[in-house]
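seq as requested:
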Amino acid sequence: GLYPEGVAWDPTRKAFLVGSSAQGTISVVRADGSVTPLVAPFAQVSVLGITVDAPRRRVLAAYTDYFFRMMGIIDPSLPPVSGVGVFDLATGAVRHLVDVSDGQALPRANDLTVDRNGTIHVTDTGIDTVTTVSRDGEVLNVLRDDRFATADTGPNGIVHHPAGFLLMGKYEGGRLFRIDRPCSARPKVSEVRLDGAPASLDGIALRPDGTLVAVSNDLSLSGGRQSPDEVLVLRSTDGWRTARTVQRRTWPHEDPTTVAVTPYGDYVVSGGLREILTGVPSTTPGTFHLRRR
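struct tokens:
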């Protein structure tokens, strides 16, 4: 019953963490498949992208009440809730809840990454932004770019590259962007030229060998099912100005959303999110899969 959209590897536990789009929690998933709570519900929200900031003993999460609002569970007259949650990695206690709704009507904080200084960068698929949040929970910058804009689903998966830039996938159209100087007043955005863009780009993860694992689905594409569920591996030899696809695999579990890189392989989560989005139960309602690529 968790319906996780996001997954992260926790090196301190040697276990996975998964968010819950249905319950607004974060749970620990161990190698035997056992699931135990870590972060208790802190609002009526979906917890989507998550990441572990092990040096600062934090788990970070993007959360939004968008799904509850669309289902009519939340009073539409109330202001939307969309933000970054910062939690203690050991106990799950709340450290900060940072509002990144930017005064918009239907924000959807979706995924996030953290740089070497502890600065957080979070995407919003509803208002087409990338917001930068300080270690102390202060919004530093909101990045907009005409290329991010869409009537469908916008900025999605995001990672911090060791060279100091961000890589961000736009869901609709499967476009990948490099963002330089993300903490400055004038970040530089350039599109990465791909040899064959997928129909969508959902979650992405950077591997130790420098390749990028990317997940594609049709959960949020207008018109329903129209493309295969895929997991791709992209490689760049020019600093992510261009990239080529070195592996492309149709995924056996429907509706994969993102991937966690671990010392034991890359694990893709399929959380049954279509049930949340459409209300139509799957053949195995309430279950989720973590499968090694």
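Helices lie at 66-70, 273-278.
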